[in-house]
Every structure is written in structure tokens, then in C-alpha cells.
Design brief:
Length: 162
């Protein structure tokens, strides 16, 4: 297996600073890192490029995802949206590209956005990133039987719609 360190000498990996991850992990208690390597994973359970996190199930795990940057970011955000509909909580560290299709189709419609002050200094970087970052939280959508139960309670209380 090619070492991530070797691979990353030509391509920055943009690994999450431990303090930023620790603050989010205190809040969300992650169970799965969906985009990682053995060297940089933030959770004992992870998917690497060899597993292909995009084609693996994330739900119902509380999932951390700082995806590989580049044109594929949109595919990772779409995957987070789908997996949260299936019951996963997904928290992502993303470039704050508010003009992109993925931001408008998935993030605005479905997620909570936390704009980070300043620039993230990724692991191994000599300075802050050349782009601003956001933390995006896709909360698990209630399962169908939960939505039905909530609707029935609302009806019983006379607060239901229709
Ligand atoms: C931005 S780094 C994040 C590393 C680490 N999870 C963190 O948060 O610090 C993205 C990682 O995703 C890995 N990766 C690339 N393609 C992947 C794929 N298809 N499935 C899972 N991981 C992948 C890269 O090798 C890299 O280690």
C-alpha cells in the first residue's frame, strides 16, 4: 500500500487540525471517519481511498467527513445528504464555496452551516489555508415511523396540520 505521507508530498491532504476535530468530537462523538487513511483517520473506524467511502454505507453512524478536495467535493456533499436522510449524522469540514452547485443543492436546503473565523491551518501546513472553511452539519432525518408518530401526536394534541 502506498503511504499517505509519500502520496501527500505532491498533493496536500488537508488533514483536520486535532484541536478543531476535538472540539467537534466533544459535541458529536463521532463513530466513523468517511474519508481518511490509516495515518490520518480521526476515528478507529474509517474508510480509505481503497474502500472508497463514497460507495460505502455511513448510516446510522455519527460520521466525520473532511473529504478529498477538488472537483469531487460535490459528490461527497451529496453522499452526506443521502446518508443523513437514511439516519446518519454527518459533520463535514468544507471549503466555504457558497457559489457552488453543491452548496445550493445540498447545504442550504438541508444542513446547518458554521462559518469558521480566520483560516484553518491544516496538519503539516506552514500557514493558514488559501480559502475560508465551513463546518456543515447534516442531522439525521427522522425515520418514517418517527415522522408518523410525531404526526399522530400532533393530531392528538389538536396541533396537526390539515
Ligand atoms: C482531507 S483528508 C482528511 C483526512 C482525515 N480524515 C482528517 O479529517 O484529518 C481526505 C482523506 O480522504 C482520503 N480519500 C481519498 N479518496 C477517498 C475515497 N474515495 N474514500 C475514502 N477516503 C478517500 C485521502 O486519502 C485523505 O486521507
Amino acid at each position: 500500500m502506498i503511504s499517505e505521507a509519500l502520496y501527500s508530498s505532491a498533493n496536500p491532504v488537508w488533514a483536520t487540525p486535532p484541536k478543531l476535530f476535538a472540539a467537534l468530537d466533544r459535541e458529536f462523538r463521532f463513530e466513523l471517519d468517511a474519508a481518511a487513511s490509516a495515518e490520518n483517520t480521526k476515528c478507529p473506524r474509517f474508510y480509505s481511498r481503497y474502500d472508497d467511502g463514497l460507495s460505502q454505507p455511513w448510516a446510522p453512524s455519527r460520521t466525520w467527513c473532511n473529504p478529498p478536495y477538488g472537483r469531487a467535493v460535490g459528490a461527497w456533499v451529496a453522499k452526506a445528504h443521502v446518508e443523513s436522510d437514511l439516519g446518519a449524522l454527518v459533520v463535514m469540514l468544507l471549503p466555504a464555496r457558497t457559489d457552488t452547485r453543491w452548496f445550493h443543492e445540498h447545504v442550504i436546503r438541508r444542513a446547518e452551516v458554521r462559518f469558521l473565523p480566520g483560516r484553518v491551518r491544516f496538519v503539516g501546513a506552514k500557514a493558514g489555508a488559501p480559502f475560508p472553511s465551513i463546518v456543515v452539519v447534516f442531522r439525521p432525518r427522522p425515520l418514517r415511523h418517527e415522522r408518523v408518530a410525531i404526526g399522530q401526536l400532533a393530531l392528538a394534541m389538536g396541533t396537526g396540520r390539515g
